[in-house]
Design goal:
Blueprint (H helix, E strand, L loop, with lengths): L4 E5 L5 H16 L5 H11 L2 H9 L3 E8 L2 E10 L12 E9 L8 H15 L4 E7 L3 H9 L3 E10 L2 E11 L3
Parallel strand pairs: 4-5
Antiparallel strand pairs: 1-2, 2-3, 3-4, 5-7, 6-7
Helix pairs in contact: 1-3
């Protein structure tokens, strides 16, 4: 059976699907690194209905659902201008804030499809750079992004309640 993928721009009507994917994938990826209480608090705040609605309503953020054979497999969130979560050396940049792929759809190249969509959007917006945050202990993700042309430019902290995690800022120049 041939797999077909589709990327569709989200509206506020997609909030529940985004919320479900975000909670599921974040929990699967990071729950073993945090206390259950801290994870619960983080997920309740970061992916609450009110928070996601605010993000969806922000004109400088855009969400996309990824469908594989009409099943929701993941989503992408990109930010420009003041919606970006960190300052990077080049202000004419686009942030890929989230690439979330559900576990049962992983290892199919879908993360690469979403990453390439983010890069395509940045090019369409005439941005000079694309950047994203990668947990500094996730060697697989760091190596993947390096292979895609990203380089470590800096770092910042993410707090899951009182637990600190350090993310690398990885940047890809689009001036090539």
């Amino acid at each position: 059976m041939k797999l077909s993928t589709e990327i569709k721009k989200c509206t506020v009507n997609d909030l529940e699907q985004i919320q479900n994917i975000a909670i599921e994938t974040y929990n699967e990826t990071y729950s073993h690194l945090n206390t259950p209480e801290n994870m619960h608090d983080y997920l309740e705040n970061a992916f609450s209905t009110a928070q996601l609605k605010k993000e969806l309503d922000n004109e400088h953020s855009t969400f996309f659902l990824l469908l594989e054979n009409d099943a929701i497999a993941g989503y992408l969130k990109v930010n420009v201008d003041n919606a970006q979560t960190q300052q990077v050396s080049n202000e004419n940049a686009l942030e890929i804030e989230r690439i979330y792929v559900k576990s049962n759809f992983q290892d199919r190249g879908l993360g690469r499809i979403l990453l390439n969509k983010g890069i395509e959007i940045a090019r369409d917006k005439n941005k000079h750079n694309v950047w994203l945050g990668v947990w500094n202990k996730n060697k697989t993700a760091i190596d993947f992004h390096k292979n895609m042309g990203f380089e470590v430019e800096g770092e910042y902290s993410v707090f899951v309640a009182d637990e600190e995690h350090v993310n690398y800022i990885m940047v890809k120049s689009l001036n090539d």
